[in-house]
Amino acid sequence: MHKIFYLILGAVLLFSACIQDADEDNVPVRYTVLVRDGRTGEAVSGASVELTGEDTVSRTLSTNNNGKVVFPAIKSYVNQVIVSKSGYVPTDTVDVISSVDSTTSVLLRTLNLVLLPKGYSSSDTGKIYSYTVTILDKNTMSGISGASVSVTSGSTEFSAVKTSSSGRAVLDSLPSKQNLFSISASGYIPIDTLVIADTTSNDHYILQTLKVLLSPAVSK
């Protein structure tokens, strides 16, 4: 049984931060994370920032007085980022800035994240998120039936659901945009590919479709 974990922070982070282009998959990435208060705009010091690469090793740092942490460069194709601090909740705001340091062959990636004080009323809160997750066999592109898909949405952990005969599972009414997905399928391993598509939304409801490719553990 193999598992892969994703932190879903929004389409911008998925496309720009979590997934590197094919020609970048061997380039080390150095993450700088900046955290600010969504009410005052000020830096949030002492926030916990956890970065987990595809090696499943978690690296946790605390933001300094400028609300900043810088992680050592890692070679990772899919990355999970969790930011938290007591008295705060995550919002939907994620800005990503990428550049290449040609002198050291390192991809520099900066994430600007916002936390809101608990109880603070904002248009960024009160939204509901629904994800349709489709698990596909890399070789055949057919759906994988019976794969397990679970999610932790914000601080709430939801029970796992199984994919249908078409490889599809629906996780509905999630309270946060900061979602950590756990996906596993017997006889398969992840190949670190995540695609987001068919995203629609209104003022209160966000619909998103995720497609994950898995590779057979033994060549068929």
Please outline what is shown here.
The chain has 220 residues and is mostly beta strands.
3D architecture notes:
- With 220 residues, this protein is mainly beta.
- It has two domains: 3-117, Sandwich (Protocatechuate 3,4-Dioxygenase, subunit A); 128-216, Immunoglobulin-like.
- 4% of the residues lie in helices and 55% in strands.
- It has a four-stranded antiparallel sheet. A four-stranded mixed sheet has the order 5-2-8-7, covered by helices on one side. It has a four-stranded mixed sheet with strand order 12-9-15-14.
- It starts with a strand and ends with a strand.
- Residues 1-25 have low confidence and may be disordered.
Shape: globular
Query: What is the total number of structural domains?
Result: 2
CATH topology of the largest domain: Protocatechuate 3,4-Dioxygenase, subunit A
Mean pLDDT: 75
What helical percentage do the residues reach? under 10%
* Oligomeric form: single chain
Beta-strand portion reads over 45%
Radius of gyration over all CA atoms, rounded: 18 Å
* Top CATH class of the largest domain: Mainly Beta
CATH homologous superfamily assignment of the largest domain: Aromatic compound dioxygenase
Distance between the termini: 18 Å
Largest sheet, strands/sense/barrel: 4 strands, antiparallel
Number of H/I helices: 1
How do the SSEs run, as a string of H and E? Answer: EHEEEEEEEEEEEEEE
- Unreliable sequence segments: 1-25
What is the count of β-strands?
15
CATH architecture field of the largest domain? Sandwich
Strand line-up in the sheet with most strands: 1-13-10-11
